Amino acid sequence: QFIHHVLTDECSVQLSANNRFVFCLRGDVERRVKSVHKNPVRVMIWGGISWRGATPLIMFDAGTKINSSTYQGMIESGYKEWSRRKFGDHATLIQDNAPAHKAERTKEYFEREGIKNLSHLKEGIHKWWKETLTIKTCRKYIRRVQSQMRKVVEAEGAPVHD
């Protein structure tokens, strides 16, 4: 069980409507996508999720290089105090295999600050995901997300259940 674990990641998000799929209520022409921006704004977002809620989101310019120092800054401003409030000293950080996460300086920082993480399990988790997520299963997940999004739109953003 992942009761004391916090899964974090960062991703780049494009702030324009250029998706292949647009979800809107039938007859609601006001919300339909009307144009595609030539040079859309992009931002990088870092965040985490756990049994006890989500970390604060950290946003920065998409051109920002995520190196060990930048990553430590994200942990300082978005994770450290939040995890102590939610978990005391019992939180365990789980991150992907990005170079900034496994850098020697980052490992030293985690040790110095007393932040527990599961970096030693990353290779096993990565191998398991590679074997588990085939193209067929990815398509199945995409269809499921699209189905759920239709329900969310129909419920006007309210939580939906199967």
UniProtKB/TrEMBL annotation:
Superkingdom of origin: Eukaryota
Limits of the Rhodanese domain:
103-137
Quote one Gene Ontology molecular function term: nucleic acid binding
Question: PROSITE patterns under this entry?
Answer: RHODANESE_3
Q: Which InterPro entries match?
A: Rhodanese-like_dom, RNaseH_sf, Transposase_5
Q: Where is the signal peptide?
A: none
Name of the protein in question: Rhodanese domain-containing protein
Q: Give the source species.
A: Pristionchus fissidentatus
